[in-house]
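Appendix C reproduces, verbatim, an entry submitted by the partner laboratory led by Prof. M.T., so that reviewers can inspect both the input and the predicted structure.
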Amino acid sequence: MYQSELPNNKDYNYENPYKVYALKIPDTIYFAGEEIVLNSPDLRERMDRELLVNTYWQSNTLLLIKRANKFFPKIEKILRKEGIPDDFKYLALIESGLQNVTSPSGAKGFWQIMRNTGLEMGLEINSNVDERYNLSLSTKIASKYLKKAKKKFGTWTLAAASYNRGISGIQKNLNFQEVDNYFDLRLGSESSRYIFRILAIKEIIENPIIYGFIYDEEDLYHPIPVRNFSVDTGIVDLSKFAKTFNINYKILKIHNSWLRQNHLNNRSRKKYFIEIPEEGYY
């Protein structure tokens, strides 16, 4: 019903202080230095959907903004070192919400890495240690995958799409549909939305006031300084180990989620780096 069609009835209350506004869709947006012109109804509607979802699911998006302030600095540093465009931090954000979650298909960690993929790319994954939960290592593995995909497809946008659909899945669809870019592909719902989810959260985080998100610096979550303690032996009791650094088991596991049990086996004498938060932050 259009506003002009509202019934002319004095008892009909349509004066509502809460208003939901349509959003202006940018004509052009950039991802990883690649220009994306939103010049067709299909592209504009897909972008509109993700902007609306993220703008009006305010609680979730505000949490994403807060977590981004805490974890982006670490992710940005690794991406820069690995030669990956900074915008890929938003891929991690939409994959996991920057939480160590597990998907229904079994993908884990901030970068939602599948078990077989992680093992193939050199991560240790077992009942005692799961390095998919190690933000530094998983960011490096994600970077390795993205560089491989970029080399295959030639664009960062297709590389990002392949993170969701797989390199072979994207290539198969490009061949079958006889197109050469993501925006001309007909994909399933999840893959069709994937890049636009990244673009929308990037647009909102980089322009929060435009989309109604008002906050002060002190409202955001902040990185906690840590130092890396190296170990090349097993640890029988992580609770006792934590106490030697004046922290408890909970704090140790918050910073080292890759330690999956209450001990570390390490029969191979591998060198691990355990993050210990600086004093005064807990």
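The chain has a mean pLDDT of 95. Additional entries are available on request from the coordinating office.
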